[in-house]
Write a structure and sequence with these properties.
By secondary structure, the protein is α/β, with parallel strands linked by helices. The protein contains 3 helices and 7 strands, in the order H-E-E-E-E-H-E-H-E-E. The termini are far apart.
Length: 153
Amino acid sequence: MPSFKKSKAKTSQEIPTASMPDIVFILLIFFMVTTVLREVKLRVKIDYVHAKNIQKIEQKRLVSYIYIGPEKLAGNKISDNTAIQIDDAIINNKTNIRQIMYDKLKQQPKLIVSLRVDKNAQMGIVTDVKQELRKAGTLRINYSTKPYPKGQM
């Protein structure tokens, strides 16, 4: 009777790692491109108005925010004066809003300006901001609000 011997395969069980640096580099670029690196540091206090009918904006990249409310001071104090903030800067002269928003509109033609206004802010300041936005040609404006808490209305 012939005897048969099993022969072992002479292949290596190692995982090839030659393309590992390429994969790591591609993942690094992907996360760098898709990650939001920083948010705006709020220098004004915003207490949002509640609303019944709210629509969510789907494309956040098209939105530029203008914050209107009392300015935050050092030591968690709140100023009595209403301030206007665009990005990280407090706007002292309302006419500067026109140039800032015009430049943003040139970069992003479908720009939506979202006004985040404190509920105790004077409507005159909001009207002045809206007039400057109109002069800049940024006509797509919305107001940011919060929904009523459940069970209240």
